[in-house]
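Continuing from the previous page...

OK, I double-checked the sequence for Concanavalin A-like lectin/glucanase against my notes and this is the correct one:
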Amino acid sequence: MAKLHHISAFNTILYILTLTNLCQSQSCPCGYSVGNSVFTEAMETDFTQVQSLNSIIGDWQVQDWRSNASADANIPYNRVTQYANVIAGNSQGLQMMVRTASDDSIGCSEIRTARNDIKFGSFRINMKTTPINGTCAAFFWYQDDAHEIDVEILSRELTTGLDGTPGPVANLVIHSPESQAAGFDASKTNSFMKDTMDWNPTKDFHEYRVDWLADGVQFYTDNSKVKQMTNNVPENPGRVFINHWSNGSPGWSGGPPKEDATMWVRYTRLYFNSSDPKLVQSAEKRCSAARSKGSKNLVCDIGGGSNNGGGNNGGGNTSGGNSNNGGGTGSNGGNSSSVFVPSSPVLPTNSSGSSSSWADLPDGSDSDKKGAASPQLGGNVGALLALSFLCIVSVHFI
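Thanks. Re-ran it with the corrected sequence; updated structure tokens here:
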């Protein structure tokens, strides 16, 4: 029998390709493109190389907090998120634990990005969830309880979803003022979907991806688009979270688990825009400088993915944690490198219908209503990519 850390041929290829940088940050000075959108910040973490949580502290914050039981909300156990339940140093990746109940409490785990300026982006996680009944594995972007984009996998839905959907199920959610009005029950809104996965998420590692664009949110699994939502799309910046939890609620997580449950995180790849005007200006200058020098690979295409129809609601090679705002690739941790940073992911056009040149923009361009500059990239994405060389992917075997 294959060892636990062995993965299928397809996922081996996917893992190798995505584990490495799609191209070095120096080769993508103007950002990373998904369709007609450009994201200009990159934070990539390979948790298989993280030996200590201290090495990722610049990018990720391990959480420690408590949410009390509530008879009124039918939550029978305290949810106790603890630093000790996030464990680094394993070749499979980061372990995120949910403990068996102790008295009236359940130990849980959570990490979040140190940055809270994440505004639009493409967020990817490679993870394996627990087969032990009674937990929720979640990967999500969050501003507040009424502005949140979730991928949640309940271990109790491996066979059948709570609503009868054939399992295993991934819950795809946008929390909004509408769901807030419904008692934070997004299933009562049109921003809640269930996707029946073609695999058991507890048997192998798979990539789950969220593309948050100005005109909608797209959900992918293993590089195939499965669902799309166009209602209640958030517009303001926030953070990215990963957590594994249970509070015994019969309406969601179920549990508590009968034994300690482990969720494994192999890597995260976050490509996004910043709402920080200083980063906008810095990235604008970097992109302009690269163009004036005739640099190649100005924008790297990270889109990929196939469209399986999905649903529409109508409407560098990194190895563990220091941030790097100079466009270089970090070592001993996931790196965060700033490149060109528009406040909107879709490249805007001027009144003549063509995009303005970066060289024509003064330092400190006009700000939008939220205070972030809205620079425009010279030419359209297709023309720019046509002038840029393809990104070179270096494949490193573990």
